[in-house]
Amino acid sequence: MPFVAANGLEIGYDVAGAGPPLVMLHGATSIGREDWAAQVPLFGRAFRLYLPDARGHGRTHWDAADGWSNEMTVDDLLAFVDALALETFHLLGFSMGAMTALTFATRHPQRLRTLVIAGITTQREPRASVARRLMDPARADADPAWAAILARRHDAGQGAGAWRRLLPAIAADVAAQSLLTPRDMRRVELPAMVCCGDRDPFVPVDHAWGMTRQLPDGRLFVAPECGHEVMVRRPALFNEACGGFYRSTAAIAHERATHPDAEQAPPAEPIGGEDVTL
Questions:
Q1: What number does CATH give the domain 3-125+179-257?
Q2: What tens digit of pLDDT does each residue of 230-251 get?
Q3: What is the dihedral of CA 78, 80, 83, 86, to 10 degrees?
Q4: Do the strands 21-25 and 9-17 form a parallel or antiparallel pair, or are they unpaired?
Q5: CA–CA dist 36, 278 (Å, integer)
Q6: Which residue in 52, 88, 95, 116 is a FRET match for 20, CA 20 to 30 A apart?
Q7: Domain segments of the chain: what residues?
Q8: Looking at residue 115, what DSSP letter applies?
Q9: Which helix or strand (DSSP H or E) is residue 12 part of?
Q10: Alpha-carbon distance 252 to 211, whole Å?
Q11: CA–CA dist 133, 139 (Å, integer)
């Protein structure tokens, strides 16, 4: 399992597949290879996949007592792709990773070929309230199975019990981080898809719809009878939606890879783009 030095960290990451680069960002308290387990075998047929562990998670050592914020993870992502010499790439993020991905897209749209975000809203609530409840270490004390999962994911790389400092640090950042504005969203001038479950406690469907309307080239996928972890709870539907998105945007993605600073425009006629077969 490789590591790369980036932004003062030794970022641990998994890599799989072959093709255009696709960076996949996991959600809070998780790790990449678990959040995206149902996607890696399929997506790896069309893309070279990079699944970094966020700071304080998995193998990327960081003590949240020294600070933790979305701003840090955005800087980490930029340093990570620079260290791997990924000039342009596809970006996919879930929950915490989706906020990292979306913020990155508002600041560095020229680096991205496409963007897919799942389980995130640009509004404070209900995300902050749900995060405060779910990120309470006392919840793990009352649920030994959940505590064991957190220990399995993080103790080896972070030290025993370090997740007890990480959880409230993430919740505090969700409650305080700067919110993206419609003006910020309009800077994401590239193919993008917003995904959520119709029963996601973090992201009401109308929030996801509103984000899609603010993106210049946005699409919306809502998984029926599904909560927060759309790619875990509804993997077949999620994979099908992503496959259609990547196929339909392949020509534009190819153009963005070849001319990353050019303004986005659909091709005049169908052309061969990236070979995306999911």
A1: 3.40.50.1820
A2: 999 999 999 999 999 999 999 9
A3: -70
A4: unpaired
A5: 15
A6: 95
A7: 3-125+179-257
A8: E
A9: strand 9-17
A10: 21
A11: 8
